[in-house]
Amino acid sequence: MQLSKEDVLTQANSICKNTLMETLNIEFIDYGDDFVVAKMPVNSRVYQPDGVLHGGATVALAETTGSFAAHIFLDLKEVFVRGIEISANHIKSVKDGHVYAKATFVHKGRTTQLLEVKITDDNKNLISVCKLTTVAIPKPE
């Protein structure tokens, strides 16, 4: 039985309880054949001291979104997915509203996956561009 998009998103959001994703209020909102989208509110919980979005929170959003993309496109009965490298270029500051991460595959291999994650604000301004590499590790039999 194939789950509906709503069921997949509900399950993804429910497993984020008591994790960093819940702390940062990250919510998965969409996915398709080669992408995943999540959003995060921009408020004092994710600020750096001068009152703008912290780059580390942005990177946490990017890694969360990209890792989830790898999770839903691989057979998790067979493998664990782990991020092994992430880089980020921060382009613009944000003080309020939401930021949205859209992770798309550059390479979808059996062992390694490469994703580009673009972070935008409520007005679709580009905030950051991240590159995430994940690895699929076989589960012990």
How is the main sheet built? 6 strands, antiparallel
Strand content: 35-45%
Cα shape: globular
Give the CATH architecture. Roll
* Count of helix runs: 3
CATH fold assignment: Thiol Ester Dehydrase, Chain A
Spatial separation of the terminal alpha carbons: 25 Å
Helix content: 10-25%
User: Ranges with pLDDT <50 over ≥5 residues?
Assistant: none
Mean pLDDT: 93
Give the oligomeric state.
Answer: single chain
Count of extended strands: 6
Q: In terms of structural class, how would the helical and strand content be classed?
A: alpha+beta
Radius of gyration: 15 Å
Strand arrangement within the widest β-sheet reads: 1-2-4-5-6-3
Q: What's the CATH class label? A: Alpha Beta
SSE order in H/E notation? HHEEHEEEE
Compute the number of structural domains.
1
Q: Superfamily at the CATH H level? A: Hotdog Thioesterase
